[in-house]
């Protein structure tokens, strides 16, 4: 069963969500996990990819926008359900406020939220959804 972690950022700026998503993706990638970042749109996926290697000037982290490839060692940034894996995978980072239909294919789901009321409201509904179905939940404030 997918373990679900919620990360709350005490800021309403969308840039803080992007920064957190990238930090978590890099940490996951460095630990050797296949990582998929689910974005709200193609524009968001491309923007995150372009920011990926600005976090640390001394390291390069591979990434691409498009369908998840299980054999790839790069971070996948997707924006459509068809970009998610068709079989079991390791880490999904949910940047989109929409509940993804493919989250249960992952061993672990990282849901990001912030203090923007509309975004936070969608994430509260996601929490209720996961809880009502018995998914193990953890909450972290950043």
TrEMBL record:
Provide an example Pfam family for this protein.
DNA_pol3_chi
Superkingdom, taxonomy of origin: Bacteria
Query: Signal peptide position in this chain?
Result: none
Name any Gene Ontology BP term. DNA replication
A molecular-function term among this protein's GO annotations: DNA-directed DNA polymerase activity
PANTHER family the record matches:
DNA POLYMERASE III SUBUNIT CHI
Protein name listed in UniProt: DNA polymerase III chi subunit
């Amino acid at each position: 069963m997918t373990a679900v972690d919620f990360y709350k950022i005490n800021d309403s700026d969308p840039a803080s969500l992007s920064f957190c998503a990238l930090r978590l993706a890099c940490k996951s990638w460095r630990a050797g996990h296949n990582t998929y970042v689910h974005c709200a749109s193609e524009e968001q996926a491309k923007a995150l990819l372009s920011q990926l290697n600005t976090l640390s000037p001394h390291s390069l982290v591979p990434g691409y926008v498009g369908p998840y490839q299980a054999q790839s060692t790069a971070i996948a940034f997707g924006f459509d359900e068809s970009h998610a894996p068709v079989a079991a995978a390791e880490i999904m980072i949910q940047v989109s406020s929409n509940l993804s239909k493919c989250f249960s294919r992952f061993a672990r789901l990282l849901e990001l939220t912030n203090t923007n009321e509309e975004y936070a409201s969608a994430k509260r509904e996601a929490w209720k959804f996961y809880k009502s179905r018995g998914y193990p939940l953890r909450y972290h404030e950043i």
